[in-house]
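Following up on my earlier thread - several people asked me to post the actual chain instead of describing it. Fair enough. Here it is, all 605 residues.
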Amino acid sequence: MAVTKGNNKLASGCALIMATVFCGSPYTQAEPEVSGDIRVNQLGFSPQSEKIALLVTPKVPEESSRFVVRAAKTGNAVFEGRLQPGHTKTWSGQHTLVADFSHLKKTGHYYLEISGAGDTEPLRSTPFEVDSAVFQDLATASLKAFYYQRASTELEETHAGPWHRAAGHPDDKVLIHPSAANRARSANTRVSAPKGWYDAGDYNKYVVNSGITMGTLMSAFERYPDYFSAQSLNIPESENALPDILDEVRYNLDWLSAMQDPTDGGVYHKLTTAGFEGMVAPQQATQPRYMVQKTTAATLDFAAVMAQASRVYAAYDAQGSEQYLQAALAAWKWAQQHPAVHYRQDELNRQFDPDITTGAYGDEQLADEQLWAAAELYLATGQTDFWRVIGNTPREYSLPNWADVRWLGYYSLLAHNDQLPQDSNRWRSAIEKILVVAARELGGAGSKNAYLVPMLSDPQNFVWGSNAVAANQGILFLEAFRITGDQAFLNSAQATRDYLLGRNATGYSYVTGFGHKTPMHPHHRLAAARPDLPPLPGFLVGGPNPAQQDDCEYPSKVADQSYVDHVCSYASNEIAINWNAPLAYLANGLSAIENQHAESHSHHE
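Reply from S.P.:
Thanks for posting it. Predicted structure:
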């Protein structure tokens, strides 16, 4: 279902929920039992992409098995092949057999069938689609998820479908926490900071985590502006002249602007209740809310986001663009005067009341925030002072996360290389090479593991929010593909999407509402408050996490299987804006590229 701005209203939400009980499935007629041992992208494939499925088995059969791809409606065979043994065992000691049907390019609905041993019935995969638009609803939903996270506003049925709800958290009487007090704003002064997105499964709003989230989303828009300009998310602002992704980002920018102290330019670390609210609807979560301590990390992240926003919104709102830039410059100035104000929640609670026990987002390393802010401010102003900061910063590659945003700055600089200093060609070439080498090494490692995906190149990838690690790896591949045009990087990005949608050790598609085996009980207060509904669609859950910090019962301690679909599992089954942003970048970026490829193929035929 292709999306064009203005005609895709999705009022019921059903078009966003593919093949779930709630809206009915295109495959519901007498569907035979699906084998959980066949791991495949549960949505499908674009026609020109690699198409791989895996059979996970305790032992390799003595004789080579065959597989057949059949038309879902008729059962007619459309492609046959031989299963190939995987390169290595899975981390849990299983074997994999690989079905490669990349040569199947004809649009249609299919399933994979693998012959059983002896008299046993053949094994069948979940049905899937081959179509250039198969991921369009996923791409849209990954962004629409941010609308569902909006604070301070009612979500109407026209836009939210069955997930419509009352407004919560007006945030117009937020208290200055004693840790944030100064002469101009003493403790318990009331300030207003409405709007913004709920950060994760909880109802608080954190500047540091909003930083990487908004930087990622604005960068996605900058890479694929024509694609996003045509996309409708069916949000209240969909009829205006601004692309919907920028309308949604601006809803959070409006809140973020209020997190800056207008008297000195410093930025509060978070807007939060003292402790986490219960698993209730937003309008029932009414504890007092606080602005907590200004920090250098929050202020530099704010500076980076506002500088980037000044660039991104300039074509649509010159006055707003200038306000964003002035806010960024004021934040930079405060950060230079306060270069090492860290958020240390335990220390804060020893000094001030009430105790704050919500997400800390504490960060002891600030050179990466400094680089990101300097990069965005350089692109916004052209001032050489910012370029000097960039030139003196380490260059080795590190995958972005909320605590390491250095490469957000490098991505932006490489994407706007026409704005770099005239004598910076050698610097740019070095940074490009570092990025491409990192992508090539990760992609190469991806081709050597049992599931043939980059994410399984290293057990250390399986941290809290491991699925966001995978999605950020996908962004690395898209950036490398943009620089080089090398098809191998596009293949790796698509393999990463396959991983998130079912080609993995648990057999889950990790995005709510998309696929045949998806999370139904995320740690998400908005979902838990409505147990009569399926979870809100389009959210990427955290994913396998062998540290299991939540003390829930997990089926396995093996790194890539350490996941449980239970509301108690905030360590593996929570949602978060900084996880959905790279999903949105990957899903929409791939859709933009695949749409272009589909158009060029249709012109050549």
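The radius of gyration is 24 Å. That should answer part of your original question.
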